[in-house]
Amino acid sequence: MLLDALELVGIAAFAASGAVAAVRARLDVFGVIVLALTTALGGGIIRDVLLGVHPPAALVSWPYLAVAGVTGLVVFWFHPTVAKLRRAVLLLDAIGLGLFVTAGTTTALGLGAPPYAACLVGMTTGIGGGALRDVLLREIPLVLRREIYAVAALCGAVVVAFGDYLGLPAVPVTLVGSVVIVGLRLLALWRRWNAPVARKLDG
Amino acid sequence: MLLDALELVGIAAFAASGAVAAVRARLDVFGVIVLALTTALGGGIIRDVLLGVHPPAALVSWPYLAVAGVTGLVVFWFHPTVAKLRRAVLLLDAIGLGLFVTAGTTTALGLGAPPYAACLVGMTTGIGGGALRDVLLREIPLVLRREIYAVAALCGAVVVAFGDYLGLPAVPVTLVGSVVIVGLRLLALWRRWNAPVARKLDG
Amino acid sequence: MLLDALELVGIAAFAASGAVAAVRARLDVFGVIVLALTTALGGGIIRDVLLGVHPPAALVSWPYLAVAGVTGLVVFWFHPTVAKLRRAVLLLDAIGLGLFVTAGTTTALGLGAPPYAACLVGMTTGIGGGALRDVLLREIPLVLRREIYAVAALCGAVVVAFGDYLGLPAVPVTLVGSVVIVGLRLLALWRRWNAPVARKLDG
Fold first, then answer.
1. I need a surface site. Which of A87, B75, B98, B124 has the fewest CB within 10 A?
2. What ipTM does this complex have?
3. What percent of chain A clears pLDDT 90, i.e. is strictly above it?
4. How far apart are CA B40 and CA B11, in angstroms?
């Protein structure tokens, strides 16, 4: 119940990040909605395609579609206001990341994937939508370049897989995994942590 | 029979649009053929991956492959002529869009997808190939930026889903849906309709 | 046994090419590892998604993941040295291409795909990872622009499909197909063969 409500919050946050990026790229209203849908639902669709869930849950669940689409429209109309809410959007995005990654990992484990595969699938669920957003807008995916994003996702996925390995109950494990992700992500934003970059090539 | 022939026309039109874009991007002959195949067959492959049809029909059907590949070769050799046929290519592309979207929606409904999911899958079938083409050539997908393209696709998909809901026979419904798409698309091109773009951001 | 070992060599070579490209694009250490994994495993994942193998073998096989990830890390630390090994990387990449294409074609045939579909799937297995790498780094895929790469892959795939059609034993056919690919690829590099490009458009 609470997790379901939080998941819709995460979808709205992901949709908002896609829509804001689309508005900045001067897409029309339809492009903005498509980007909102793609960013919010893309990770889950990739997960279901990898795991063989047909058709993908994100396409069959109308609340997901409605929340993502309406968020896209709202951003289109009120985007100067949304642009000012940058901190709120980052917070919601961290919550969405936490829930998507842990839900993806749990789904993969439930379908019999080995733990390391489940972690990869869970991470992909969380970061796939944003990567699609950036590829469609012709950017190198942010997740590959900035701050501790995918690492936070991976840590949470490992927590869920380890909890499952120990036979702990699923709901608290999912919550702890989500909190780890949200916490690491906010810490990284707050302290401006970045992963190291290789020394520059001379040639 | 007529629908099958029209579908091959649509594939040739999509293949031509991919090949023309590839020639403009200075790809070699093989790249031109790959772009022709990807643009013509990409939407159907995405549809089959989402719906769990393995292997995708587009890879198993040699007439599709042959038509798309030969179209790519023809464009490579005669592209200055093809470039002059811009209006004919746009007309064929509209017909291809109409047939791909309605066929995709019908396929999804037949596999038991709910109506809104079938509409999304149908739309994706129609616009997916062109989106792949633009991503491979490092463009922001045209469908997100220009004219009434995806909206026309969505309207036709809704017609098909609604007709199916009312229990109307499939062939006339598919035809009406295709006519709606082709009509909207040509109207949009003729009247230079575009969807609205958000006001410019100051910051 | 020998084929398995060679396959790991191919994965390491593909991972190295992804990691070198990521270092050049100034990604952080995590982005370098993700690019290494994507380049090395992407082709196989696309193959399994097309053929309906869930979850994809590349995600379930820990040696693949370990070799690709460690290669990414090694390149991150020693990339000036790796950059000097360009010839060795190209040789390993050709071996990887040969093994991936023939393995992909064999897998598709084993799952009942018709020969031309199996050739396309095999070719996609070999060139898909590199195409993903280039799309993520916002490049037009190299395979579409340069040298005899996809053509070599296609020739090897046809050898495997034809051998299968004749009922020849799988292991020698796979070896011959791989040798054809590696040979064509090295010849193309050595003689600087390129496929023809269309005459320039005036307009």
1. A87
2. 0.81
3. 38
4. 5
H or E stretch at A199: none
- Range from B69-73, C87-91, C187-191 carrying the lowest mean pLDDT: C87-91
Tens digit of pLDDT for each residue in C68-87?
999 999 999 988 877 777 77
Taking an 8 Å cut-off on Cβ atoms, the answer to whether C135 and B136 are in contact is yes
Specify whether the CB–CB gap between B105 and B48 falls below 8 A. Answer: no
Amino acid letter, residue A130: G
C26, C83, C136 member nearest A141 (Cβ) = C136
pLDDT (tens digit per residue) in A70-127: 999 999 988 887 777 777 778 878 888 998 999 899 989 988 889 999 999 999 999 9
**Nearest CA of chain C to the CA of B186: how many Å?**
25
Domain ranges of chain B: 2-191
* Ranges of H-type helices in chain C: 2-24, 29-51, 57-60, 62-84, 86-110, 115-136, 142-145, 150-165, 170-191
Q: How far is CA C165 from CA A90, C98, C116, C158, in A?
A: 56, 20, 11, 10
- pLDDT tens for C127-148 read 999 889 988 988 888 777 666 7
Cβ of B31 and C145 within 8 Å?
yes
Of B23, B30, B59, the CB nearest to C121: B59
Distance of CA A129 to the CA centre of its chain: 6
Nearest partner of C129 among C30, C33, C21, C36, judged by Cα: C36
Work out the burial of residue B193: count CB atoms within 10 Å of its CB; fewer than 13 is exposed, 13-18 middle, 19 or more buried.
Answer: middle
Instruction: Name the CA dihedral angle for A49, A50, A54, A55, rounded to a multiple of 10 degrees.
Output: -30
Q: What is the pLDDT of residue C61?
A: 86
